[in-house]
Protein 1
Amino acid sequence: MIVVGITGGIGSGKTTIAGFFKELGIPVYIADDEAKLLMNTSKELQREIINLFGEEAYREGLLNRPYIASKVFNSKKMLSSLNAIVHPAVRKHFQDWVAAQNAPYVMQEAAILFENGGYNLCDFTILVTAPLKERIARTIKRDGTTENEVIKRMKAQWSDDRKAAMADVVVENIKLEEAKNAVSRIHTHIMVRLDKGWA
């Protein structure tokens, strides 16, 4: 199964772009959503996260997201430790999901596809970008957060330039119609490569 990875910085609109592929019949695995689900349902993950952050990591059986966020956004070491627990579990879950799909190719949407080395498991990668002001405005509207918080989260991610150098293709997500047309072109390109045996 050919795996297409799609990523983008916070507020870039990567989920919107992934949704356009879904409309074309391509199964999309949203890694962040699945990670949240696993952290709330896997007893093994819960044990490891409590060992790392203490009992306050969960409230009434659910991940205490504000508490975890306050710990990891101020400590790269804690973030790395959390990722070392969660990423292998998500990777295994993704592989099981891929095995159950029946489509020309599948797509994995992940916020830190390049940062965590996930791109190595992809046959093709897409980076979604948007102007900084637009990304900040989108994130404030979506999360009800502050500009300072958004900028802090952006600083924890790689720059678009660094990711663009590693991506197979970049989609600029400013005008939806143009972005949708770009998706259509990429889909056609992938299908042609599949017909040729992924040459």
Note: DSSP finds nine helices and seven strands in the chain.
Protein 2
Amino acid sequence: MRVYLYAKSGHAIGLDATRRCASIAKILEEKGCDPILCTCDFRAGAYAKEILGIKKYVSVDVLSNLPNIMERGDILIYDTDEASDFMQEHMKDFCTLLYKIPEDIPSTIIDQEYFTKKEDQKIEKLFFFGDDDYNNTLLKMRKNSPKQNIPLLCGHYFFLGNEKELEPYFSDLLEEESYVDSIQNAKYLLSGSLNACIESIKCGGKPVLFKREDKNYDDDLIKKLNLPIIKTTSLEEAIDEFENVIKTYPKINELESFDINNIIKTICSKVETYKKLTN
């Protein structure tokens, strides 16, 4: 019996699901469950190992290909919108335990090794558009914009050459490898990633969500958090609005607590019982 985590990822999707699943995989590793992280592309898995600290990963193009590597009775945690009702029923029959993010585990799950309360944050303001920009939206936004007094944290899937195109419009460009340190140390964060905003909140930062047209967001969660929102197609307008929000930044509501330890205990118990029966 093996434990798998499947995260939808890719150059048009980003790494938010990968980060969430990696945080769970690390807890399972600490408990000796030897989980395997499945990502839709090799780069996401390599990133999770090199930057996020997971031990095992494998590339799986789509969720429906998981049975090619899994065995009946294995355990699966998955973070994707790919599964139809029929597929979910099949997965329930195939797996001993099945957990879906955000239904069974909230999407606010983060890596507590990295994203905890931080004092004396060194970066006053930071813009993180997201890990992906498949439609070159940020390049279009920066047209006719003067240089902005804010650093840009580059995305993992930015196209080759985009950094040179963007560099004149920001005070600094931070490499994507510095993601964890940058989110930790940003006092005010403007981001197109709701996941990054949640990580920022956990670190004591004050994030503002930049609502991208090519992304779907959990509006109920945004409302619960009282998270401020910016939506525009102009970089100059986005930064101007960001500055205005900072002046009267609202009180962010606390994230609802979720104890994943009960799920971890259940998974580890099943794995341990299986080991005893097969040894």
Note: The longest strand covers residues 123-128.
Protein 3
Amino acid sequence: MGFETAVAGGVLRLRRPDTRWLSTGWDGGFADAPAAYNVSVPEGWERTDLDAYVADRLADAGFAGPGGDPTAPALLTGVDMRHARVARSGPVVAVATAGVSNPAALPMDAEGREEPTGESVAGEGPERPGRGTVNVLVATTRRLDDGALANLVAVAAEAKAATLLATTGFPGTTTDAVVAGSARDGDPAAFSGSATTVGGASRACVRDAVRASLNSRYAAGDATVPDSVADAEHGVVTDRETEVTRP
């Protein structure tokens, strides 16, 4: 049985019964649940009671009863779900919503650093879903142990960063998040690295889903990709110095 996607009321659901999930988002970690969600929030959204908010949104979308599904991972984003895109390959599916109004730049040398310098161009603030959050949900019908599932998060994040760097010049935004899922009743896969069937398919699916979502959001001209962090609505440049030594 594969993973099914559905969108209603500004909420995207990625569903398959008997799935193990690992989320890097709000209230994340490991969870056993029949679905994972990506929830679009309105501009100017300021709610802090996230448990209640997500529960209400899932119920309003018809995806859960009163109280929502407290075990299901859910990501929040300012990107409208009309820009969500799905990519499938072999035993893997990836879903992405992508925008870059709050880019996070990581210059590799002093000449690449922007002015003004400092960790944050837009100022420090809570990690709330911005208009440019890049959310990725990736799942496989193969059964992974917890270590391989954690590695799948890393594989997806690497593919997301590579895609964003190639298409926007930034490796990510200040609020990116990944949810990875594995079928608990699937055929076992010992590893999920880039050279494996699961890892290779995940890299390709994340690349294509993120790229397609970016194209949807920006090709129409409703928004533009900033040329730099200084030109963005929000964003950070990580330009602090470190002390590097031998162990």
Note: The mean pLDDT is 89.
Protein 4
Amino acid sequence: MTAATTPAGRLLTLGRAEATLLRRNRTAMFMALALPLVLVASMRSVLDAAAERTPGLDVNANLVVGSMGVVLLIVVYCNLTSAYTARRSDLVLKRLRTGEATDTEILLGTAVPSIGLALTQCLLLGVGGALLLDLPAPVNPLLLVAGLALTVALLTGLAALSSAVTKTVETAGITTLPLLLVAQLGSGLMLPLESLPDSVANVCRLLPTTPALQLLRIGWFGTDGSGPAEGFAGTWSQGATPLLMAALWTGVAAWAGRRWFRWEPRR
């Protein structure tokens, strides 16, 4: 049995092909590399303004975790929505379905380059933040990794779902905008939840993207900002609810994305 006939081999083959297409698409590369940096640069002033209204707000912690969230949203969700739409319009996905790869392998293989690029950028942001901002080592690396994995899986499912209502690559910027804005403003990326009124913050914690992104902060800093920092053991109880909710939302997004994904071009 050759590597290409195994699920892992097919995923790698599809991923390499998608990576080649991604490198050739200047617009997609700009979205994946430059746009997150522009948004991250603007976050500092927003967080500084929030800190003036919220004494004790940890600007550096919110900056690093928020930056990771922005990168994941743009590179995985927005970029992958465009990729799914483009490959569908070019009949690439339809042709792939006639081969050995399953539908799930085709969707995941298309996502591999975006996911790899996003995780690499998150790693660089984490290392850079730790060195430049003198941040502590992660309190619970397991929760941090779980948060990254669940966020990636959630956004991949949401990208597949969003592509179902996206007719062309040019309209992907419109169809992804609502979730992008809701996640940035309501999931604690641009506006920390602890700086919002309690009633608003409680609603925002129920949004699909909030629990997984909360795990990033709990895993690194031992708190989601609503209480004192905990040690390794304490973070498990604090992260239990976000972990359960993140897994639930991820399952719903994966099911919905697979259920309503469109393989035929939209006319």
Note: The first helix runs from residue 7 to 24.
